[in-house]
Amino acid sequence: MLVVVTYDVSTETAAGRRRLRRVAKVCESTGQRVQKSVFECQVNEMQMEQLERALLAEIDETADNLRFYRITESAHLRVKQYGVFRAVDFEGPLVI
Predict the structure, then answer these.
(1) For the chain, what are the domain ranges?
(2) May I ask which residue range the UniProt record assigns to the signal sequence (predicted)?
(3) 63: pLDDT strictly greater than 60
(4) Is the model's pLDDT at 75 over the cut of 60?
(5) For 35-46, how does the pLDDT look when each residue is reduced to its tens digit (9 = 90+)?
(6) β-pairing, 65-71 with 38-42?
(7) Which residues, 6 or more positions from 47, have their beta carbon under 8 angstroms from its beta carbon?
(8) β-pairing, 32-35 with 2-8?
(9) At 35, phi and psi to the nearest 5?
(10) I need a surface site. Which of 1, 25, 77, 83 has the fewest CB within 10 A?
């Protein structure tokens, strides 16, 4: 399944800036960054649960915001892209 992860981490303190870096690293290990605080992740149910637990362990729920969006439309309707960035097609062939 395609999951979009978005976050807003309060960076008013040094601890907040460290949380921001840790949250980004967790997301980078699972998906691809499409905007500064937005990641697309192609995951199965188990990977989704692991990602959610890892991110919840990093954020401060009293100061930060974390959102998960499960994209359920058919593959050709999921994402419309404009501009220079082109996301990796996880379903397409792998070319090295």
Answers:
(1) 2-72
(2) none
(3) yes
(4) no
(5) 999 999 999 999
(6) unpaired
(7) 30, 41
(8) unpaired
(9) -150, 175
(10) 83
Locate 45 and state its tokens. 């149910």
Asked if residue 8 belongs to a known ligand binding site, the reply is: yes
pTM of the model: 0.77
Measured distance CA(9)–CA(21) in Å, rounded = 9
What span, in angstroms and rounded, lies between the C-alpha atoms of 64 and 5?
14
Query: Bridge partners of 79?
Result: none
Q: For every residue of the chain, which 3-state class applies, written as one string?
A: CEEEEEEECCCCCHHHHHHHHHHHHHHHCCCEEEECCEEEEECCHHHHHHHHHHHHHHCCCCCCEEEEEEECCCHHHCCCCCCCCCCCCCCCCCCC
